[in-house]
Amino acid sequence: MITEEKARRLLPHIWHGFFGRFGRLTPTQAVAIEPIVAGKSVVLCAPTASGKTEAVMGPLIERLIQGDREKRSGRNKQKSALRSKKTSSLRLLAICPTRALCNDLQRRIHRPISDCGWKSDVKTGDSPSFSDDNPPQVLVTTPESFDSLLSRRPAALRHVDALFLDELHLLDGSARGDQLRALVFRLQSFRPDLQICAASATAADAERLAFEFAGEEAEVVTATGGGRDQLLDAHLQVAVTLEDAEIALRRALKAEPGAKILAFANTRAEVEWLAAKLSDLQAFAHHGSLSRGQRLRSEKGFLRASSGVCVATMTMELGVDIGDVDRVMLINPPPNVASFTQRVGRSNRRGGRIQATCLYSTRFDKDRFEHMIACAEEGRLFPEKVAFRPTIIPQQAISLISQNPDGWVSAKALHARLPTAVRRFWTEGDCAKILALMRSEGYLHADSQGRYVADVEAENDYKYGRIHAHIENSAEVEVIDEATGRKIGTASWTEQDQSGGTDGFVLGGKHRDVTRVKDRQIFVKSSDSDKEANFLSRMGPRYSFDLARDLPAHLGHDDRQLRFMATGDRSWRLQHFFGTLWGRMLCALLRSRGFRLKKVGPFFADARLSRGKLPRDLGPAETIEEDLQNWLHDGYKQFVKPLEAGPWRRFVPDEMMRRWVIDCVRPQEFAEEVARFELVDIRKWPA
Description:
Layout: H1 4-10, H2 15-20, H3 27-37, E1 42-45, H4 52-73, H5 77-84, E2 92-95, H6 99-115, E3 120-123, E4 138-141, H7 143-152, E5 162-165, H8 175-190, E6 195-200, H9 206-214, E7 219-222, E8 232-238, H10 242-255, E9 260-264, H11 268-277, E10 283-286, H12 292-304, E11 308-312, E12 327-331, H13 337-344, E13 354-360, H14 363-378, H15 392-403, H16 411-416, H17 420-423, H18 428-440, E14 444-446, E15 452-454, H19 456-463, E16 476-481, E17 487-492, H20 495-498, E18 505-507, E19 510-518, E20 521-527, H21 545-555, E21 561-568, E22 571-575, H22 579-592, E23 595-598, E24 604-609, H23 621-635, H24 637-640, H25 654-665, H26 667-674, E25 678-682
Parallel strand pairs: 1-6, 1-7, 2-4, 2-5, 3-4, 5-6, 8-13, 9-11, 9-12, 10-11, 12-13, 16-20, 21-25
Antiparallel strand pairs: 14-15, 16-17, 18-19, 19-20, 21-22, 22-24, 23-24
């Protein structure tokens, strides 16, 4: 940790722009400045709202400015002078998890970067413009746009000296995080001295984060204090139904006249129902199935409103500028602690206590809220590690074909562009199998030298920018306003719907009657109907084993018990707390022991034995593992979707997918864990 006086000396060019307007350095900034200015790759772990972005961006830019000046004053003065007459070069690439966060980061850094004499800009799917002839020195972008730059305009990155990975914990463990790892390694292949710095809100498994994204020489810097984690004022309130949640929102607005409330629901259906019911107020809906234009109208409407409510899914967790929010309301617990922290953190972002109301429908959900609050205050996020996805490899193959001026890739070249640690697991032979499958599917074909080149489908995907994404394709279709022709969003639309099996849609907070269906587009008109309309939601998020198992410990239960509450003759409600993945493994094991199970979730399952008594345990670890390995030969398919394999699954052989799933679910570790559990029959839930 350095003093402000020393920081001023280390940061002569950027001090005023990045730190001068603040009264003092935050603890986060005080520990991060020195190693970054010294040129080290750093992963900074610090609380939310503690100044992480300035703590990384400022020193990175300072080091680059100082390096430029040293070059101009050194032996290469004449050569550097000639270069300085040219237009600027892209020097620093900042990667954010979402487009909204890109826009938010650009708003925050634009002025201080301008004060340093540099330029910054954004490149995303929403803001695609980027000039190779006169690029900004700092470009803020997403993993997908980073992929696009590497494959389409790699020359624009030839002077990049630093990489900033913002909110890295939000990408870690996801398909987009795996993609980012591959892209960073590809950039390092022609920028070997790249300085890589990252900011994360959690120190959980920070050493692994640093190794995977910034290299084995990266330094982990952890800061405590200076954020707003400790200022959470959470009020728990029962709301059994959505009608109760609607009443709670109305009462909150009445109790705080002029207040703006951001309400988070866990499904899009809940968002639409509440927004429609609150339509007599200033109410806005926000979720991923709305079109970009519709989301922007909701954002701007809520920003400009003097008071009102915005009901959203996770799309409002990060970086969307909606102005000051007086209170956040959570309608039942979110899937994990990180999401909880992000949601409540939207309240009073400009200072003061975080005002949050947590609406729970059951005693169990109240327990979950209390557990999440405790975990958030202690900084325990319980991330779930997922092995590097083989589905990244075919996507990177077509990206590399696009980058190569000669338009080809080989198994050897593809394997060489995978991160070092990944190459130890996925071999050159595995790459060859993927390329061969892509060829057999007609996506690639071989040239006269046996190298792989794009076929018609791949060329079309490149033309329309579809080769850069790892977001799962959906069966949703566009919803178009019949009167205006404007796209409202997307919705699930099955053959049953098309034959009249639905009463319509609630979308954008309004009831929509279907007028016609044509070419995967649904045309609708607004309606005043009071009929309940469906909005089909996608699969829920994944719950980690560690987070699920920490809950019974928080409740004071014996965490080495699988608790069966009798609901009938040889019928039970199983309370397992094994999370999503291991919960499915446990249920598969129980089926092999004669149980029939349904309604399997991350915490509970309904179980029944057709005969016999409840056993005391599930057997020794060796037997459990053998049974699970046999089941996983075909049962692995149950994990492909919750593990977020992504849209490139069709090009990965089954044997590789099976190997990846087994590496993720860890059957040996699971067997050793569950063998220590006792099966307990209880007559009622404990008090």
